Amino acid sequence: MIDETTNQLIHALDEKFHGMKQNTATHLEGLLWAKPITYWDYIQTDALLNLQTQRTLLPDEMVFIMYHQVNELLFKMILWEIDQVCHASELTTAFFTEKLRRISRYFDMLTTSFDIMRDGMEVEQYMKFRNTLTPASGFQSAQYRKIEFASTDLINLIDYRFRETIDRNTSYRNALEHLYWQAAGKDHKTGQKNYLIQAFEEKYDAEFLRFMEEYNTINIWQKFKQLPKEDQQNQELVAAMRHYDRTVNITWVMGHYNAARKYIESGQGSGEATGGSDWKKYMHPKYQRRIFFPELWSADELKNWGEDC
């Protein structure tokens, strides 16, 4: 005897599959033969735990690999939340604020996690295995670049030295050539790019250009400006926007900066990052002044951006 609740569920399934022009009986029979889900199948634990491949026999290299893989997973979570904001047909301040708070929490987690890398690896081991990683660099995280593209207008990501002379309506290609992170691998006197940039562009250029165009009018800043004026003055939303901006462009960056400084400056190497970049001027917020939402900060706050860290 089938109870009423089960009957209702079967009816609901029948309506669902009918709407998909599918045979309900076929799907129900599929359930009959399907094996129960397990945690390890759902999370794909075996696959996940076999994605770490060391290039050396030094134990702390495993810490380095897993730490960066965790970072990439969190970047994916951030992009997942951003996508929901940027592609929403209708936005409420409550929804917008909650998504920004989620994203900021992910970045807060990333920031505090730098202790794992800063204090969780022996300098001597790092200085040995890092040479096997050259010219790879965390600079080459495509997901992080996408987070930036989806957060603000491209003009705010242009190298600070060129921002006054770049037309806001410049081509995506020209904008890409003048983004702040080009300074990490480009000699601006000669225009020569090092292998770090060349390999990165060969892999991701076309994808970046498509992404830049997609988010040009729907990035987080544009979605904020498209809200009604009274919503743009919502104090909780403004506070969430400012917190996100500072968290990504000062707090998280400085966590990364300080972790890098310990190993690069404490070791016996050249003082360069693995990709050969001028890491101090690339990373420290006071140099590039990366600010997603400059209109939400006072003149003094903008002038002193990154100076208090």
C-alpha end-to-end distance = 69 Å
Work out the helix count. 17
Which percent bin holds the helix content? 55-70%
Mean pLDDT: 90
SS-based structural class? mainly alpha
What is the count of β-strands?
0
**Uncertain segments:** none
Task: Tell me the series of helices and strands, N- to C-terminal.
Answer: HHHHHHHHHHHHHHHHH
Short description, anyone?
This protein is mainly alpha-helical and 309 residues long. The chain is built from 17 helices and no strands. It is globular.
Describe the structure.
The chain is mostly helical and 309 residues long. Helix content is 60%, strand content 0%. The chain starts with a helix and ends in a 6-residue tail after the last helix. The relative contact order is 0.11. The model has no long low-confidence stretch (mean pLDDT 90).
Can you lay out the helices and strands and say which pair or pack?
Layout: H1 4-19, H2 24-33, H3 39-43, H4 45-48, H5 60-86, H6 93-112, H7 114-119, H8 123-129, H9 142-149, H10 172-177, H11 195-215, H12 220-225, H13 229-232, H14 235-266, H15 279-283, H16 285-288, H17 299-303
Please describe the structure with a list of short key phrases separated by commas or semicolons.
309 residues, mainly alpha, 60% helix, globular
